[in-house]
Amino acid sequence: MGPPRSRPPRPRPGHCRPAKEATAAPPTATPPPVAAGETLIRVWAQANDVEHWRADNATKAAALVTDYKLKVQAVNDSAGWADYKKKFTLAADAGEGPEIVLSGTKT
């Protein structure tokens, strides 16, 4: 029996990567400032760098809306399911959760 294999480090709980779109921002304890007449939509996606489109699509869709002024805070989170669920639960209990949560598989 040889030495134990080392695993790559796991992401820290709550570790998020902002979506790749220019308008995306990481989650904050308080929502970003919203101008008068603007509506903030927070989108959290459990996704890695390959699946960045999961949150990016909300940003692209908001750009097509002309009847309202929308501001999208899109976040791709590479945390494991348990950490992602815990982060959402804590944020929702504090009234700071996203309006849209994307998780699960594409089956």
Task: Summarize this entry quickly.
The chain has 107 residues and is α/β, with parallel strands linked by helices.
**Percent of residues in helical segments?**
10-25%
Order of helices and strands: EEHEHE
Alpha carbon gap, first and last residue = 39 Å
- The pLDDT mean sits at 75
Sum up the overall morphology in one term.
Answer: flat
Describe the structure.
There is one protein chain. The chain has helices at residues 53-64, 81-93, and strands at residues 17-18, 38-46, 69-77, 100-102. By secondary structure, it is α/β, with parallel strands linked by helices. It has one domain (17-102). Strands 1-3-2-4 form a four-stranded mixed sheet, sandwiched between helices. The longest helix has 13 residues, at 81-93. The chain is flat and about 35 Å long.
In terms of topology, how is this protein built?
Blueprint (H helix, E strand, L loop, with lengths): L16 E2 L19 E9 L6 H12 L4 E9 L3 H13 L6 E3 L5
Parallel strand pairs: 2-3, 2-4
Antiparallel strand pairs: 1-3
Features:
2 helices; flat
